[in-house]
Design brief:
Blueprint (H helix, E strand, L loop, with lengths): L2 H12 L3 H13 L1 H13 L1 H10 L2 H6 L1 H24 L15 H13 L2 H10 L11 H28 L2 H5 L2 H23 L3
Helix pairs in contact: 1-9, 2-3, 2-7, 2-9, 2-11, 3-7, 3-9, 4-8, 4-9, 6-11
Length: about 200
């Protein structure tokens, strides 16, 4: 495993995407433990993309416009649904002192779906991982699996850090309901933007 792979992966993971935005929203709304569930779910959502890429199935999304468009628009609908839910459903980013009833499995499931319904993730792995494997490597499959595992571990750690940062701002937000109102609008707008961006992608 090269230093180049680690640095490139770190940059990719740090870039704000749907998983980062979701983890920040959960950390801010429900606290640090809930953000760990969100980070776990988002990381788990990488598994199908990694498996598909390693098995060569992601090539189908690259060659079949119908397959790509089907998954893409499912992802678009889900992102718009998340934007609507943040604005209309107070349980998504409800900030309160009581965090005992937070549904961690529900939070993790949502994070998993956000990544599963992103066809560009499979294409990313298909284009990204092979760059760091030698064509003459005797165990290319094993090396690809190892790189995918490291990428996922890095994703989880970085997302937990994002969640911790958001959770640390909870006390400030709890005392200022008007601030939370604007933050919810920003998160909803971001999900809407990401959905629109995915909709026009090729």
């Amino acid at each position: 495993m090269s230093l180049e792979f680690l640095l490139t992966s770190l940059v990719v993971v740090l870039l704000p995407g749907t998983g980062v935005i979701y983890t920040l929203a959960v950390g801010l709304g429900h606290g640090f433990k809930a953000s760990i569930a969100a980070a776990f779910g988002c990381t788990l959502g990488i598994v199908p993309a990694a498996i598909a890429s390693i098995a060569g199935l992601a090539a189908l999304l690259h060659t079949s416009a119908l397959a790509f468009q089907t998954i893409k628009y499912l992802g678009v609908v889900y992102l718009f649904y998340m934007a609507w839910k943040i604005l209309k459903d107070n349980t998504v980013m409800e900030v309160s002192e009581n965090k005992a009833e937070t549904g961690y499995w529900r939070i993790a499931t949502t994070g998993t779906l956000l990544n599963i319904l992103n066809p560009k993730l499979s294409l990313f792995f298909l284009a990204f991982l092979p760059q760091f494997i030698s064509p003459t490597a005797p165990n290319a499959m094993t090396s690809l699996i190892w790189l995918a595992v490291v990428f996922m571990a890095m994703t989880f750690v970085v997302f937990v850090a994002y969640g911790a940062f958001a959770a640390s701002a909870r006390d400030y937000v709890i005392r200022r309901p008007s601030v939370m109102k604007w933050i919810k609008r920003c998160f909803a707008g971001t999900f809407g933007f990401l959905g629109a961006k995915l909709a026009v992608s090729d």
